[in-house]
Write the structure tokens for this entry.
Amino acid sequence: MRNQPSNDREMKEAVFYTMDDFARIRKVDAHTHINTHNTRLVNFAKSNNMGLLSINVDVPEYPSLEQQQEFTTGQLKANPEHFAYIASFRIQDVEEPGWVEKTIAGIEEAFTRGAIGAKVWKNIGMEYKDKTGDFVMVDDPRLDPVFDFIARKNKTLLGHLGEPKNCWLPVEEMTVANDKEYFTHHPEYHMYLHPEYPSYQKQIESRDHMLEKHPDMRFVGAHLASLEWSVDEIAERLDRFPNLAVDLAERISHLQYQAVNDHDKVRDFFIKYQDRILYATDICVDDAMPLETVEANAYTIWINHWKFFVTDELMEAPEVSDKFHGLHLPTEVIDKLYTTNFKKWYPQQDAINL
């Protein structure tokens, strides 16, 4: 049998969940987008002992940030013990007088209404330019007062900065199918087609510099901090920045891809950094989506991820071309991945009290 503890003592002491434990064990999906007042998905998650953290984000095809705020505060009111949300802000007017004060006031209002953190998105570094024509990067000094405010409020900054390294490759050379699909349908973010934009390395360096400037601010790097292609790279940043954690949203396939040939390295990564990783999916729902389909899709994603983390079975995933074994992580690690780390990195007393 694969993926067993490496010594006799650990073998005797380790305890493992099974597939039958999925609905029984408390869990949080720490990265979703609930852009609707309809509570059906939240209630479905609740029936599976799953709390949801919804992320407001300044995505062009999403409802406005104001509308997202109304959706998420409404969901919070309806299900305060199974739902939490992250606010966001715009930087289009970063050069205008009063932008800092206006932005901080907006974030403070969101905190007052229940937001447990704030998010920055990849439009910082990949879209917005200032009046000189330079891209606004996340380590831009003009953003520092906002980050300082978030830290003073003891809130968490969530950051989707940069993209998977695949983004800088031709589609046919990308490692996982979900990246091939996304960048085929979003050529505006496919950096291989835009060599004039900041490089992958520039995106990572800017984020790292921002962390160096704000060592007292809790930061969760969404999507494995855009270092999804290498657990060694993620580990290096976790070692360097004690204020950094990562969520798994829409990047578990990259870990499965690495597990094809480096299974033990991926498993060892989860065990060593078990206090720094949050389970997350990036599931989205809005009023245009058939809710039955959303529920079925969510359950399929959740149960397949559970299988990857708790069993040692030989598995397949549509995003990965080869088979791989599950990680068979001990219950202690699973509990941190799914619940404890959420409470640690978003430490609001009333947030998702399963």
Remarks:
- The radius of gyration is 20 Å.
